[in-house]
Amino acid sequence: MSSVPRIIIAAPGRSSGKTTLAMGLCRAFKKKGLAVQPFKKGPDYIDPMWLTSAAGVECRNLDFHMMGDENILRAFQTASKNADIAVIEGNMGLYDGLDLEGSDSTAGLAHFLRSPVILVVDATGMNRSAAALLLGYRQFDPELDIAGVILNRVSGSRHESKMRKSIERHVGMNILGALPKAPDDVGLTERHLGLIPVKEDPSLASKIAVIGEMIERNLDLETIHSIAKTAGDLPDVEPCPTSNGESDIKIGVAMDRAFTFYYQENLEALESAGAELVRFSPLDDTRLPSVNGLYIGGGFPEMFLSELESNARLRNQIKEEIENGLPVYAECGGLMYLARSIIWSEKSGAMVNALNFSVEMTKKPMGLGYMTLEANGNSEWLKPKSKVYCHEFHHSRPVQLKGDTRFAWNVLRGTGIENRMDGVIYKNVLASYAHLHSCGASTWAEDFTGLIRRAGKSVNASDNREAGQAQISK
């Protein structure tokens, strides 16, 4: 039985302070000498980057749609087996989800993982009403272990005192601390897809230490740790597969400030399938490393239009290698990079020009939420009728897309590229708006590495002393 101490950080709604609290707790517990394993409920990439920076280990996602119950349990136990405490950040409101009964909500995850919940409540503009809110949350699901509350953005001592007295009198819930309104230079900045990724601007990491200190000063960490130890035992399951260290192919993975969206499980699945992963930067490297295929994940290439365009040498090489049959798998931002150009309002930047369309940025999301895809038989490395459970979140759309474009998937749920289709096929390229998780696309890594082996292509980087020097750290 697995019994790692754990807590789930939840809130009544979005933007209540879940990420700030979870990140600060990771930092504070790490400072105390505990091995902290962070998790993020849902498909989000950005919050996990902040949690990873705070804890010093890779944050893992836990998502019912993409992973399913068994894989959630496997991922949780595999990642937390050596941890002293697991900090799990919920998403949306505590009871929010697709299922009317809440089985896929943060509360549903708490039940599934037998974890106590700590609620963070945004105190802005309320005092006694917080007691009514908490009473309702406790009564809505009496079986849920809401073990305590943290008051966030408290305006002062009088405000805090009135809230504490109201909650103690009417609810009796354990108050674990109160956080003041954070100074502007500590607040986390948002834009169209959420927080700015810490990997995009490493200077943002300095905020984590300040937030950690704020958590230490204002919260009862000993009681929170004690609450985590009340989590119930979980049944043992088979661990996630790991690499045996042997590899016969190399895959170049685009990783820099523009391309940051990768699930750690996807990288590990490729390694387990016999690939060595070699990082390269579309922003900074002028040549590809010596590889047999490319994996270009999502991110925010639109924020780096001029830098990506100015690196014409690498763009031209990628296009040439694609024309010669190099296998490439690209997601969202990767798809945008492989297009002719990215157009954003009055600005545009030339991209790789391997795909027969440009991409236009939009003010509103063109695709948002979970996806279910079914292979239509057009792609040689996807089994016909096989399904993939994934998600999309893009403020862009292809323009000037030709009518003879071939697609790999029919979209059973979601938006995709156009006409309920996704996954553009060109030679040995598969590029889509879908973000896959290896747990929701169980044969993806083996299929991709199999294509790479059959293609037998190799990039010669003997004249490149810049790219490919860094193997992705385990």
How would you summarize the topology of this molecule?
Blueprint: E1 6-10, H1 18-31, E2 36-41, H2 46-55, E3 60-62, H3 64-80, E4 85-89, H4 106-113, E5 117-122, H5 129-140, E6 146-154, H6 157-170, E7 175-180, E8 190-191, E9 194-195, H7 206-218, H8 221-228, E10 249-254, E11 259-261, H9 264-272, E12 275-280, E13 293-296, E14 298-299, H10 305-310, H11 312-323, E15 328-331, H12 333-338, E16 341-344, E17 347-350, E18 358-361, E19 367-375, E20 387-394, E21 396-399, E22 406-413, E23 421-426, E24 429-432, E25 435-436, H13 444-455, E26 470-471
Parallel strand pairs: 1-4, 1-5, 2-3, 2-4, 5-6, 6-7, 10-12, 10-13, 13-15, 15-24, 16-18
Antiparallel strand pairs: 8-9, 11-14, 12-26, 16-17, 18-21, 19-20, 19-22, 20-25, 22-23, 23-24
Helix pairs in contact: 1-2, 1-7, 5-6, 9-13
Pfam family, one: GATase_3
GO molecular function, one term: ATP binding
Cofactor: Mg(2+)
Number of continuous helical runs: 13
Percentage of β-strand residues: 25-35%
Mean pLDDT: 92
> In order across it, which strands form the biggest sheet?
25-20-19-22-23-24-15-13-10-12-26
Estimated radius of gyration:
23 Å
**Dominant shape:** globular
Q: How many domains comprise the coordinates?
A: 2
Secondary-structure content class: alpha/beta
Please identify which CATH superfamily of the largest domain we are dealing with. Answer: P-loop containing nucleotide triphosphate hydrolases
CATH fold-level name of the largest domain: Rossmann fold
Helix content: 25-40%
For the record, give the distance between the C-alpha atoms at the N and C termini, rounded to a whole number.
27 Å
Domain CobQ/CobB/MinD/ParA nucleotide binding: 7-191
Protein name: Protein similar to cobyrinic acid a,c-diamide synthetase clustered with dissimilatory sulfite reductase
Organism: hydrothermal vent metagenome
Domain CobB/CobQ-like glutamine amidotransferase: 250-437
